[in-house]
Amino acid sequence: MFIDNCTAHGEIPNQKNIKIKYLPPNTTSKLQPLDQGIIQSFKMHYRKDVIRRFLADVERQTPTTIDVLQAMWIIAKAWNLVTEKTIANCFKKSGLKVTCEDEEDDLPVAKLARTRQRVQEEIHLQETEFEDFVTFDNDLASY
């Protein structure tokens, strides 16, 4: 088992049947499959659902509110939309090989572009402001 040096892991006890190796410092973003695009795909699906809810509320002229339970449902849905192909590609990119059957690309670019345009028009965002909204937490550590 490979583990990064994140202090949130705490002390990991010795295991009889598991050999634990720690990743070298400052290599996590290059070697962990989650950091190679899995988290990004998950966030994209989550934000798409939030934006969809926002647009529906704009059309109904009601305020958008998402409570903790709704957020948990959105999170579950977003995670279920991260495809095996995305996960396999991220493992491959990090240097680990995983095999899975080919499936359709999970990023319908044309549909995302239309949604992006609609959001920008609805809340009067400029191109750079939309980019800031979508990528505002890319540099934050994910645990």
Give an overview in words.
- This protein is an all-alpha fold and 143 residues long.
- Helices cover 52% and strands 3% of the residues.
- It is built from six helices and two strands; from the N terminus they run ββαααααα.
- It has helices at residues 28-31, 38-60, 68-81, 84-93, 109-122, 127-135; strands spanning 2-3, 21-22.
- It has a two-stranded parallel ribbon with strand order 1-2.
Total number of β-strand segments? 2
Order of helices and strands: EEHHHHHH
The shape is elongated
Distance between the termini: 17 Å
Q: Helical residue percent?
A: 40-55%
SS field, number of helical segments: 6
> What is the beta-strand fraction?
under 5%
Largest sheet: 2 strands, parallel
The value of Rg in angstroms is 19 Å
**What structural class do the secondary elements suggest?**
mainly alpha
Sheet with the most strands: spatial strand order: 1-2
Please tell me the overall pLDDT: 76
Low-confidence regions: none
Task: List its traits.
single chain; elongated; mainly alpha; 143 residues; two-stranded parallel ribbon
Walk me through the topology.
Elements: E1 2-3, E2 21-22, H1 28-31, H2 38-60, H3 68-81, H4 84-93, H5 109-122, H6 127-135
Parallel strand pairs: 1-2
Helix pairs in contact: 2-3, 2-5
